[in-house]
Amino acid sequence: MEIITSSKNEKIKNITALLSSKKERDKQGLFVIEGLRIFQDTLKTAPGFIRDIYVSESFLKEHPEEDILFENNGSIRIITVKDSVFNSISQTVTPQGVLCTVEKPEHTLEEILGGTKFLILENIQDPGNLGTMLRTAEAAGVSGIIMSRDCADIYNPKVIRSTMGSVFRMPFVYVQDFTEALRRIKGHGITVYAAYLHGGEAVSGVQFDKKCAIMIGNEGNGLTDGAVAEADKRVFIPMAGQIESLNAAVAAAILMFHGIA
Amino acid sequence: MEIITSSKNEKIKNITALLSSKKERDKQGLFVIEGLRIFQDTLKTAPGFIRDIYVSESFLKEHPEEDILFENNGSIRIITVKDSVFNSISQTVTPQGVLCTVEKPEHTLEEILGGTKFLILENIQDPGNLGTMLRTAEAAGVSGIIMSRDCADIYNPKVIRSTMGSVFRMPFVYVQDFTEALRRIKGHGITVYAAYLHGGEAVSGVQFDKKCAIMIGNEGNGLTDGAVAEADKRVFIPMAGQIESLNAAVAAAILMFHGIA
What we know:
homodimer; CATH 3.30.1330.30; elongated; Alpha/beta knot
């Protein structure tokens, strides 16, 4: 059995590269998940996407290799790593001792537009917000997420952590030309509702169409004028107090649970 | 004019202590806010709470002292700090060059219970979640927040950042005895709705009472059995997909905007 004992090992260096660099993730078509919960989730939901499993020696002592192999039918490579080396690549304070390289799930806009309920995101920057939005979208019954290319990278380890496994269950796509994508969405008979602070209808009074998309903009600036101009309707969330805006993931949640769930 | 040129200066060391230690914040009754936006917000909403203002030399060049004094009527001390020293205590990637020590706003449970709409939090651990909940609560029209003593510290710099200024406008209190506090809340004729994953009524069917409180539990474990037992009613948010729970701040937002706003 192969045991990696040095953090200078090529495989370990590659994991560090996949964790830190979007460019590297794009080039290899791979990303990294870490932790027992998401590992088990992935084995259940998307075993075909797992490439290599890295376990610490301590993890292997507590989880015999047969157990892991049993669940993954033996086709996936399991690589053992010295605890200190595992800890050096771990992104968590108390490493659980298991991480995997996983192939990126790929979806096209046309595939996604076969659904009926959508979330459209323009330039969402905070990885925690993006992950929370994926998780909330799954809970609200969204069929797919369409993102402008300047949104944060879903495969960023911080996003992956906050999706709680939704990354394999919620179809999503980054589009190169956002305006053109909005037009194609509308071309499918989908009504686009823009979350907008300055005017439009209060969300409580809006009866969302059966085929609909909720569109949310950047954390600091909201949607661009161009995106708002393409929307069919504008909705806002009435706010008390001196609050100027809600957290983007919170606003998305309120709109999705009103209009979609 | 006093200029601090060393990070070994006692005042600078004290700011570091206030930023990193809850114990120190409790002892001194002070906390730290950083950034132009929250500084201006505080000058407007709660100028009486500001103790000292620390500005970097660069900040002072762009914002003449008269401007700052004019707004704060001259009663607050302004201390200039060398840029490199300011950057060493800053909690942000691109420091704006202004931070303040501020007195903690203090509220009692009785004061808070004069309102009609409440958020009750048990053992919320994530600073970002807690800050987002304060901000969302203000937007939803909540009159006050009651927290178990094991919730994260609101004066933690990460919480302060995500409250976006709500910390001065939203009354809150940490209670020593959570069960006793719940009984006092109910004694005021306030109906307590527990967010509960396992049973109760779906939120969309619930007509929340006029005087009501929404109670949210810990991120990983939800509410304790003891807290649920004290609640008048249990509500849940129906979820699609394979999601086991929502992010705590998202769940709180959906319930507050359904039951309170």
